[in-house]
């Protein structure tokens, strides 16, 4: 399966009559029936799956520019014993939307969790949201429906969407702290010990079929000071160490040879220091329209504003209103912005549909070249963020029970995670899943 994000161009297009032309093949924008490749065969290659979701873990920490920041021995050992590839995330590459794609096996066009946009209904800017379109299943829903058990250790994408505090069949916990605190709970579950779930000690009757461990240590360091943050190497080493600790606990529990491990992330990151928003605003104001930047944390535009912008470092979501809201103006605005040095892409609604993005996004989404940014900050301090297409690449590691060793993962994405976990556990994927099993990496029973 070729994913549209992988095939999309991250550079400006110059084709006449189009804002941006992407070399992308559109997938259905409506829930799709699972393909035969995503349908469980009734076998169960693994008795348990343990997934680590490392927020902001750029694939270049393993191979590339930043590979010397930390050795990552436990992650590399999983790769050596299993398989690895660089996978596509989803667009926009914000945490909640991307992680919801992982949880549902569906693109944002289906689950509609969206980041950094202007919400017409509430008339407010939105940063990130906890939302899944009604009727769209998560992996927590589908496993519970098929009498399988699961535990989500601060993996918030499924909280109240199939998993809840206190439910031993689909357990949600939020221990806080760093990655070590979440791994502590995974180890407790592997030892048959109770864990704190929203203030209640819950003791599942058996080791859950799926355990998901969420860690945001790396993402926090990147947002603070970028790839040069002095705490980043320690954060990388800490999340890697938890893989080893949990794997040792699985061995002590006697289930290591029946356990598959999956390690991935929600997005990568790009650094930014140079503001570009003032130039964008200057050019737009010259068109004669009233332009307003609103806060993504709930900012409300003036009723007379004709161009509303929700700006973040790596994207600017632009909504046209009133007299500005015409197709001709959208083309004019796109050309005006595209001609600014430092702009990487301007994506219109057609482009966003090709990327299977949420329909909640505005008329245009603008992306800058690294190290330019579109936030309101102008202090020049180095930071790293995500949201644009280049950050929609993540590591994908499969290892352990049911996984073939040394088969490179190609043309895979976060949309395929739910189907692959389901295949490993011998069950059907979530009902609205658009992803497919990473079939080449899974052993035939």
From TrEMBL:
Entry-linked SUPFAM superfamilies: Alkaline phosphatase-like (SSF53649)
Keyword Signal attributed: yes
Source organism phylogeny: Bacteria, Bacillati, Actinomycetota, Actinomycetes, Micromonosporales
Name used for this protein in its record: Alkaline phosphatase family protein
Signal peptide extent: 1-23
Top-rank lineage group of the source organism: Bacteria
A UniProt-annotated Pfam family: Phosphodiest
Assigned keywords, A-Z: Signal
Key word Signal present: yes
